[in-house]
Amino acid sequence: MSRIDEIKHSSHRHQLKLMRIETCYQCDGCKEQGLGSFYQCNKRRCGFHLHEECALASGSGSITHPFFKNCHFIFHDEESQSDTILVCVACGKNVQGFMYKSSGNKAHILHPCCLKLPHNRANDQGVNVNLREKLPMMSKCLICQSRKISNEIKGWAYVSSCGKFRYHVACLKDMIFENWNNNVRLLQPTDGRNTSTFSLLLQKSGLTGKNARKYSLEIMKVIVEVIIAALFGDATPIFLTLSESFH
């Protein structure tokens, strides 16, 4: 599908143009950080930005989600005026701007970018990962070493088909920004002192040997690419692949 180069959005008075920069920005729609492509105001020094997903969400209408049976999600472009703190059920972060809210007695809230997280992804090497509403029993996220991201929120997670690799969406999201904001290459090898790199996740996987290491790299590559594409937009030009990191 071709991408729309320029749009007019109800949240801003000026035309917005599709742009790309290799630095982080804050989306003025959902108030979350972004990387890669975004829509920006045509006027100089205006500083208005929207994720692609946030910019195009208003016309999407009612959306269903397989994790939530018998309810529909409706897009809202205004903050709630109540004192209630709204939390995204996928990443556990506060929702302060654009959102999708479900129908039904118990409303579920999702960031626009979290709603579009792919449910499965595979590559040519036979690696397959699946999005789970919660981690399987007796398993933990390999980043936070917990089954939940908070007492109230289980948090969505990507789990490999073999079950050995389990990462909360929220934990991966935080780690990507921690690395990028600290000007650290996302997947570079570590010398044991830099604990913010993805290389350390290999140690937590518990797999040893050349073949197991190669497989684990492929798993991590698939999951990280999914997270970047879904949550931050198409950030391929600023993404260094795992295979390059360990040559």
UniProtKB/TrEMBL annotation:
Record key words, sorted: Repeat
Origin superkingdom: Eukaryota
Gene source species: Quercus suber (Cork oak)
InterPro entries documented for this protein: C1-like_sf, DC1
Keyword Repeat assigned: yes
TM spans (from-to): none
Domain annotation DC1: ranges: 11-55
UniProt protein name: DC1 domain-containing protein
